[in-house]
Task: structure prediction
Amino acid sequence: MNFPLPLKAVVIDLDGTLLDTAPDLADAAVAMVADLGLPAIDLAEVKTYIGNGVSRLVKRVLTRDMHAEPAPALFARALPLYERHYAAGVSRKSQPFPGVLAGLEALRASGVHLACITNKAERFTRPLLKDTGLYDYFELILSGDSLPEKKPSPLPLLHACAVFDCEPAELLLIGDSLNDTQAARAAGSPVFCVPYGYNRGSPVHELDLDAVVPSLDEAARLIVRK
Result:
């Protein structure tokens, strides 16, 4: 791939890419397992469970497994507890990663369309972006429940292409995980990943991507408005 990459739009993941949300996600998990009388969990373990939305995160916390299903009755008790705790502290500790604000400013100045695409539910996404000062950078915000499918489905990216009137090859996804690379490849879009996020504890260098960028600011240097 030749740089700078000519683009019409850039879409960016939220958890682990724009914001370090793990501390707030972990605090909600700690409170939930305490309410349920289950063994304690820590931040490091919760980080490995982030990436497929709150429901899957709760299931992983309950089972301590990436793919297992908890007992339905336990999950039915746990999910409302988690959502209540997380809603109460959705932005208490979450902060932009280094280079995010400078990167968003540079991307906006370049003239590309900007969107945030996350698997987080809308009821958490919009307050979090507003509380951390990032909301107004984006022309489009797609949450995990905005469309019938979420990442790793290509649907959110293809929806963004329709909104911005561009081809998939003219839209870049910047993320931090396997979900992001799979969604981009399925859509036919280029994808960059940052190395500091929540890729289930695995290095992003192992993923099928076009560049590993140390920060959003550095990513902005690799693109140009088409």
User: Anything to note?
Assistant: The chain is about 40% helix and 15% strand. The longest helix spans residues 72-88. The two ends are 16 Å apart (CA to CA).
